[in-house]
Known about the structure:
By secondary structure, this protein is an alpha/beta fold. Helices cover 53% and strands 14% of the residues. A 3-stranded parallel β-sheet has the order 1-2-3, covered by helices on one side. Helix 1 (5-14) crosses helix 3 (39-52) and helix 3 packs parallel to helix 4 (66-75). The longest helix has 14 residues, at 39-52. It starts with a helix and ends with a helix.
Amino acid sequence: MIVDERLTTYIDSLNWQIPEYLKEVEKEALEKEVPVIRRSMQSLLCFLLRTRKPKAILEIGTAVGFSGMLMSESAGKAAKIDTIEKVPMRLKEAKRNFQRYGKTEAIHLYEGDAAKVL
């Protein structure tokens, strides 16, 4: 991936620290070889969400729910997140994580192929 060095430096300078519970979810996902977004992208995404404060977010591909919960932390309590997952095992893990960390009100999980759900 080609990225302007100044942009990379700026993103790195944001140095946003994720909450401890998300570090745990990230660690568990990586141990199971479930991909999660890289730290630099986490910082950029959180910066954008904190500055724009969207009311609605659509995520396609929930995996274990890491990104959805990360977005929920950054976008604020008013944001509603809809996320779609088609892999049953991932769906189960995401549901468990959303319940365990109190995100069921902020994040609505849809089951199925995004092309059909949408």
